[in-house]
């Protein structure tokens, strides 16, 4: 059956308690979708659901169900598909720490690839063949030219986390080849940052943040002394690495746009989700300093292994096909990240 109204459409969001997942759940509920979240809370807090409730209000929140389960738990996933008439899946659940993945390749491959295989098999068994996968610009590796379009070649990943994105893309493509009823959208995110403008939801990494923005935010709030800038001798205008940072709310809305577009279709499509603009590490520190009202200290360190010099997206395809484009700029991303961090200095559990 083709559903044309969000209220008739039930979306399973795996990893829906995480950073990008929770923001996507908010956008889905605000658009009137029925949402089922499956998350094992291995890297997320259950408190996020109270925050979602506060943002969307009780009426919309009634359309959200949370099931605490591991996506690799076949019996649990069978039970979810038995209970709910799921139309589409948005698959976020997975381990994502690049450095940790180098130390724990077995855990990363087994969790990320294993859970996707269980999910796809359970979906097939229940006749649900529509999935959005949370992929990454990491599949482009070290680019030959910029900006990156969806036609840019995939290059070898530099760590197991990246390889799992790379391989899961190919696995899902294979499903469409084997069975043309599958409907697969691969969304390649650039660098999601920021937080919900309400200040109620944001990024809450456990331990020392690996990524730039949460680290900068923790310096701003006084939890850490100085930002470590990994290399100032890159071939970029100020010598520091350049990335395409995208506000997490824009990214979340990109999922909703993709969902509306894919409804009733089949095949496999890839979309870049970024802003199309590159920003350097020093520019980020400057923008965050402006947002928090104080010059943030930084120290320059050697380059980090595996980092590319620069990447940013060509987002023409998402604009033309999905009718989506990012609305927020770096200053809004830093403003909202600071709002979240200053209101929740120790995250959800603080
Ligand atoms: N950086 C610092 N100091 C830090 C952290 C990062 O200078 O403490 C620099 C990096 O060298 C890089 C930039 O800030 O130039 C961004 O680094 P992030 O770690 O925030 O993000 P990456 O671009 O390395 O990686 C992110 C995700 C990956 C994903 C990739 C896709 O973390 O999971 O984007 O492009 F694969």
Task: Give a structural overview.
The protein is built from 12 helices and 13 strands. The N and C termini lie far apart (45 Å). Strand 5, helix 7 (160-178) and strand 6 (183-189) form a beta-alpha-beta unit. The protein has a single domain (9-340), classed as NAD(P)-binding Rossmann-like Domain (Rossmann fold, 3-Layer(aba) Sandwich), CATH 3.40.50. The model has no long low-confidence stretch (mean pLDDT 96). With 350 residues, it is an alpha/beta fold. The longest helix has 21 residues, at 105-125. The chain has a 7-stranded parallel β-sheet, with helices on both faces. Helices cover 39% and strands 17% of the residues. Helix 8 (212-220) packs parallel to helix 10 (281-292). Bound molecules: uridine-5'-diphosphate-4-deoxy-4-fluoro-alpha-D-galactose. Uridine-5'-diphosphate-4-deoxy-4-fluoro-alpha-D-galactose binds next to helix 8 and strand 8.
What's the SSE blueprint?
Layout (H helix, E strand, L loop, with lengths): L9 E5 L4 H12 L3 E6 L8 H9 L1 H4 L2 E5 L5 H10 L4 E4 L6 H6 L1 H21 L4 E7 L23 H19 L4 E7 L1 E3 L18 H9 L6 E4 L11 E2 L1 E3 H15 L4 E7 L5 E2 H12 L5 E4 L14 H7 L7 H14 L7
Helix pairs in contact: 1-2, 1-9, 4-6, 6-7, 8-10, 8-12, 10-12
The structure holds uridine-5'-diphosphate-4-deoxy-4-fluoro-alpha-D-galactose.
Uridine-5'-diphosphate-4-deoxy-4-fluoro-alpha-D-galactose (UFG) binds next to helix 8 and strand 8.
Features:
Rossmann fold, 350 residues, two-stranded parallel ribbon, 7-stranded parallel beta sheet, 12 helices, 39% helix, alpha/beta, 17% strand, binds uridine-5'-diphosphate-4-deoxy-4-fluoro-alpha-D-galactose
